[in-house]
Amino acid sequence: MFKYSDNDMENFSLHDCRATSLTFGDGTLTFGFEEGFWYTKGTAMLSCDTGKGEVEFHTIYPDMHCNIYVDIFEWRTENEDDCVALRRNLPFEEFVKLMNSGMKIEFLKEYKGYQSYLYECDLFGCGKYGDIEATITISADSITYRWNDKE
Known about the structure:
Layout: E1 4-6, E2 12-13, E3 17-19, E4 21-25, E5 28-33, E6 38-39, E7 48-49, E8 53-59, E9 68-77, E10 83-90, H1 92-100, E11 104-113, E12 116-124, E13 132-147
Antiparallel strand pairs: 1-13, 2-6, 3-11, 4-5, 5-8, 6-7, 8-13, 9-10, 9-13, 11-12, 12-13
C-alpha cells in the first residue's frame, strides 16, 4: 500500500530515476521504483524525491504486447570515422524476462502524446546485451503515481 496517489503527470519527473520491477495485468502496466521518483508540484525549487513508489499505466489494448514497445540501440563502428546506430525491437517477453532477472531502467527523458508515453532511457544489467540505450513507448489512457514518504 502507498500513502499518496496522483494522476497528474505534470507533478512528477522520472528523470534519473530507476525502475527495479515490472508487473502487468488487468489493463495495467506498473513499474516499481525502490528509491522513488521526483515530485515537482509547484516550482522546481520545491521538488523532492519520494520514498518507494510505483507508476501505473492504464493501458489501452487487452493484449499487453500491443501496449508497450521497447527499441534498443546497438552502436557499431564501421571504420575509424563511422559509428552506426542500429535500432531493433526488444520483444515484450524478453523485456519482462530481463526485468525479472534484475535489469534496471534509468529514465532520462519523457514525452506525453495522445494515449502515448515515450521514454528515452538506459537499461542496466541486460545480460548478453550489457548496458544499452533504449526507448520505451507505452499506449495508455492515463497514468497513476503512487508513493510513500522517504524513510
